[in-house]
Amino acid sequence: MATSISSEVLARGALAGLQVVVTGSSSGIGRVITTRLLALDAVVHGLDRAASTLAHTNFHPQACDLTDGTTASDVARGLVPVDALVHAAGVLRVGRLGALDHAASETMWRIHVDAATRLADVLVPAMAERGHGRVVLIGSRVAQGMPGRAQYAASKVALVALARSWAREVADRGVTINVVAPAATATSMLEDPARLASAPRVPPLGRLIDPAEIAELVCFLLSPAAAAITGQEIAICGGASLPS
Q1: Is 235 designated active site?
Q2: Where are the beta strands (DSSP E) in the chain?
Q3: Which of 27, 124, 140, 197 has its CA 20 to 30 A from that of 92?
Q4: Is residue 170 within 8 Å of 133, Cβ to Cβ?
Q5: Which of 59, 152, 166, 220 is catalytic?
């Protein structure tokens, strides 16, 4: 089990007034990121197909099926202008060669990659015009490759290519775009019956990654102090990406 982190990098008010779009805000990593942003006095526009699980004066949930590209684009146009986008929505399906689930692969691609492109295509140019913006895409340590998770890995490594390409396009206009890539994280996704055939690997650290650790890194990347960090894939993996 993960243990809660005992200290936080950013002080209350550090992101006061920052307008942030967070996908997957109703559960898992997205919910924890949203909660931390609210604690830092940001204003969060949460996009999720599931019903909202948070109540806060600075939280504005909006139902959005991210598998529908047209819907994602329309919702994004209604949110302009915002200061930041955090794409945390995700789903994991597993399968080995000879038994790949092609429908599941399409769903993962739509949520992880197509939704990111639809949202960024609308939100990022508006950020660039204003001379300031932040984008953080939640990737995965699995993007390096793992047996039984090829389709998931492919959708996550695509985020790195998107981030590096987009970051170069807008680096001179005050917008940063990065990927945060966690190893196995202590969320309800680990209990999903659809992934029982592929158990999570506990990092060398000896425990799963705490979602609060991911949230703190994400919030730092949204802060003014991270203005020079862009086009990077930052692993938060407890040593899982290191050679054995």
Answers
A1: no
A2: 19-23, 43-48, 59-63, 84-87, 133-138, 175-182, 233-236
A3: 124
A4: yes
A5: 152
The answer to whether the CB of 76 falls within 8 A of the CB of 47 is: no
Q: What is the pTM of this model?
A: 0.92
221 three-state secondary structure: helix
Q: Which amino acid would we find at residue 65?
A: D
Spatial neighbors of 80 by CB under 8 A, at least 6 apart, are 122, 123, 126
- Tens-digit pLDDT profile for residues 107-151: 999 999 999 999 999 999 999 999 999 999 999 999 998 999 999
Residue with tokens 């109703």, as numbered in its chain: 26
Q: Do 218 and 22 touch, CB atoms closer than 8 A?
A: no
Sequence-distant (≥ 6) Cβ neighbours of residue 31 within 8 angstroms: 24, 25, 53, 54
- Which residues, 6+ apart, have CB-to-CB distance to 1 below 8 Å? 186, 207, 208
**By C-alpha distance, which of 22, 28, 35, 37 is closest to 87?**
22
Round to whole Å and give the CA distance between 154 and 118.
18
Amino acid present at 83: D
Structure tokens at 62: 């909006």
